[in-house]
Amino acid sequence: MSYSQELIHHIQSGDLANISELLKQAVANDADEDIYLLADSLFQLGFLQETKTVLHQLQLRHPQDDEIKVNLAEIAIEEGQDLQAIELLDQIEPTSAAYIQSLLVAADYYQTQGLPEVSESKLLEAKKMMPEEPIIHLALGELYYSMGKYTQATRWYSHLLEQGYSDMGGVSIKARLGSAYSASGDFEEATPYLNEATQDDEDIDTIFNLGLTYFQQEEFTRAIESFQRVISLDHGYTSVYPYLVEALLAEHRLDEAAQVIERGLALDQTNHSLYLVGAKVAIKQDQFTQARDYFQQAYQLNPNSETMILEYANFLMYSEDYVGAVAILEDALSNFDTDPQIYWLLGNAYNELEQFEQAREAFSQAYDFFAETDEFLLDYATFLQEDGQRERLREVVVRYLDIHPHDPEMTQLLQRLDDV
């Protein structure tokens, strides 16, 4: 047994007492082949200082071996020595056998630094030099996937499948390809790849993505099956619960949906999405007190969610709690850029409270966004009639009739306005 092999054996056995001495003996006496393997093993085991010691010794013996510089650069990146890493990588010339490897390491580094365009340029340069190298194809696919450029990502994942690779570096190519198609909105194309991936390996994230893909296609029965499969594998995967409830709602399975909400909230009481969908279920079951409680919990957990604010405000309006509706809507206006529907709801709420000046202002703000929306125009016209704004009322009625030219009530209203 070489000193290198003995050293690794000691580390794997947890015996670290003599590793410094064994390391000295290894670099002094072992063959270069063993020492190269030792450096790789030490790096994989996380012994970075020891790896550097070995690599520096190898560099003294083989100063022209640029792969050593690449390995030292990887360690420098791990240790946060970014400038040192870049300096080492920049020393490697395009004619070097290690140049492709240096480009891949640089690409990975720049991606982690939030510079995906620089990473992309490194990978494309590598691809130009080795156009059929699968590791480069995978790196490009992963980069574009992380950038949200899913259509470009599918190109590289598809190419890997064509080359015969279904798994590489722990990445399921079918799962990635299916997820990329799904994220780009091509759900039909995504489904078979995700299905095959979940048959090959019960990866919980892939099964969840399959369920989401079915959900987007309104194949709710299959979505439910996938979501329930996720829970059977890990009932603590709490992000699945709101989607399962929504799918059960779509299938009118209210009792099951309510049970899922209870199970989910027992595991995670900070999931505002689950409280929000819970409110929907409670409303459908005519349990309005429960619905209000769920909305309040959701609002406390995430007061900046515009979707939640709009649904909560609509519920409060339905419950004739106009003061409560105004409170959360005005709070939204004061804290962040808001969905213009908030002005619309505020107009209706203030009108119900007979605070007409505030209603007038809110409706006017909403009009800039909803001048072509028939439901808003009806609400605004009703307010304008009560408010006595004949000129603006005529404008709104004309806009509404552009959308629904044969509406008898609005036609008669326009005639009355013109007769005055």
From TrEMBL:
UniProt KW keywords: TPR repeat
Pfam families in the record: TPR_1 (PF00515), TPR_19 (PF14559), TPR_8 (PF13181)
Stored InterPro entries: HAT (IPR003107), TPR-like_helical_dom_sf (IPR011990), TPR_rpt (IPR019734)
Descriptive protein name: Tetratricopeptide repeat protein
Keyword Transit peptide among UniProt keywords: no
Superkingdom, taxonomy of origin: Bacteria
Stored SMART domains: HAT, TPR
Residue ranges of TPR repeats: 204-237, 272-305, 340-373
GO biological process: RNA processing
Entry-linked Gene3D superfamilies: Tetratricopeptide repeat domain (1.25.40.10)
PANTHER family: CELL DIVISION CYCLE 16,23,27, CELL DIVISION CYCLE PROTEIN 27 HOMOLOG
